[in-house]
């Protein structure tokens, strides 16, 4: 046990992290920045392991209030037909909408049409965790300091059906669902051409964001990104959870139940747009059973293990070509340490993995109720947005990892096995 909640911090990185230049002319690199912006990690000593940290989330603290205005987008690619909701951080308001999460209302059409701007404020785009949404406490803790500074614009891409959004097609979401995030980035780039874009992902959303950055490679439109508590290797994480009582009967059961409730909350839409067997779904207890009945049926995977292998983001780490920081507690009982791709982080100079010996899953509760992860997130993004001269970034290499030896064969880390029918934009 770490003494009185003082967690150990370690960094995993390539031998020569990508070189960066500060706006004052000073030379630095990604590792030095990550070390500089990461404060000591002092956890609540009463929550002295990952299980206690993670289970403490059940106390449902209020968290900082964040207000959103929602826009529902139509997918612009026929392969991913349907709609998805993006929540844009807004100034506090008094309106309410009982059909949406707290402090969230829809944009008025005219208000949304005038949203475009030529300003150069940094724009953060966030992906939440499994069955969550923009209202999640861990997410609000992370973005509140950036919002309060007045220097940032923030929006959250809600996974389809989450945060009281609707299913409007048979295209749901899964752990490698990068399409709605990709469309949002393209839309933001068009409407706000001068804004540097940044990405932030949590848990399942961290897996999606890592996959996105790997898939985009040298063409990634993000300036930098952070992922928190990424399960990375979903098959390994699944097996680790299944082999322990707490993993199976607490975490797998809770996650399976939350996903079943998500589908049950959209029964009419699911019956209309999918061929899912809702009667069989009622017998689901654990997350892997849900994935077998929903993800395999929806996406054509023969087994949930095939889905986990295909959707995992551990290989995608090798293809990332933007400054990328991963925050992870090694006592995380859900995104387990054995699923962390340490070797991949040590091969890619654009990536740094910061691990803490305490913190649980998306928790990092400090004495007094604060959340530690908000501190390095805020400091890293502020440093990358306001201190680093991005016009001086070194040329990006291709999206392939470095070779071992002189082999003529290439490994493509962003390749997926599931074939997606051709769409049109």
Give the overall shape, derived from the CA principal axes.
globular
> Helix coverage percent of residues?
25-40%
Cross-sheet strand order for the largest sheet:
2-14-13-12-11-9-10-7-6-8
Radius of gyration: 21 Å
The count of β-strands is 14
Give me the secondary-structure category: alpha/beta
In terms of per-residue confidence, which ranges show pLDDT below 50 for 5 or more consecutive residues? none
N→C terminal distance? 53 Å
SSE order in H/E notation? Answer: EEEEHEHEEEHEHEHEHEHHHHHHEHEH
Number of separate helices: 14
Largest sheet: 10 strands, mixed
- Fraction of residues in β-strands: 15-25%
On the 0 to 100 scale, the average pLDDT is: 93
Could you please describe the fold and organization of this structure?
- The protein has 425 residues and is an alpha/beta fold.
- It has 14 helices and 14 strands.
- The strands form 3 sheets. The protein has a 10-stranded mixed β-sheet with strand order 2-14-13-12-11-9-10-7-6-8, sandwiched between helices. A two-stranded antiparallel ribbon has the order 1-5. It has a two-stranded antiparallel ribbon with strand order 3-4.
- Helix 13 (342-347) links the parallel strand 13 (324-329) and strand 14 (351-356).
- The model has no long low-confidence stretch (mean pLDDT 93).
